[in-house]
């Protein structure tokens, strides 16, 4: 299962068996019995993710703050993986980008005077990439 609104062919090539736009469809009604969930959205999507897990299932969260969300069930596990920062992994990523094995995300630059517009873009959850403010 993959959420979001990027083009379907792009998601299928990433290995998704089924594509669900969580903005247009309630994924908890379309999917059940999952062994694992990897949530990159957070908020209410994170909380609803517990509903699709089988007993004993695990959910990992990277967009829900420093602590994993608390499940409303006792038969599933909620995880917040440690995200370490070290030079070696970053150098490996740089090598993969240079070799063309991975593509870095799009970067959209904003002036500080455009902060409101940037905020609207991030709230829409439709932008894939990074928003960066130019200070000077």
Short description:
It contains 5 helices and 5 strands.
Tell me about this structure.
With 136 residues, the chain is an alpha/beta fold. The protein has 2 domains: 8-79, 3-Layer(aba) Sandwich (Rossmann fold); 87-134, no CATH class. 29% of the residues lie in helices and 22% in strands. It contains 5 helices and 5 strands; from the N terminus they run ααβαββαβαβ. The chain has helices spanning 8-13, 27-30, 43-49, 87-98, 115-124; strands at 34-39, 53-61, 77-79, 106-111, 129-134. The strands form 2 sheets. It has a 3-stranded parallel sheet with strand order 1-2-3, with helices on one face. Strands 4-5 form a two-stranded parallel ribbon. It is globular and about 50 Å long. The model is unreliable at 1-12 (pLDDT under 50).
């Amino acid at each position: 299962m993959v959420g979001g609104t990027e083009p379907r062919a792009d998601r299928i090539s990433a290995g998704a068996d089924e594509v669900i736009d969580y903005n247009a469809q309630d994924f908890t009604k379309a999917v059940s019995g999952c062994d694992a969930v990897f949530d990159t959205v957070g908020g209410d999507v994170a909380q609803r993710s517990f509903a699709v897990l089988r007993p004993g299932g695990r959910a990992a969260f990277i967009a829900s703050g420093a602590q994993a969300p608390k499940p409303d069930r006792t038969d599933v596990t909620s995880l917040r993986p440690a995200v370490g920062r070290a030079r070696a992994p970053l150098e490996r990523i740089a090598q993969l980008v240079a070799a063309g094995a991975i593509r870095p995300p799009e970067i959209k630059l904003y002036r500080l005077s455009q902060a409101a517009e940037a905020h609207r873009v991030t709230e829409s959850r439709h932008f894939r990439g990074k928003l960066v403010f130019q200070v000077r």
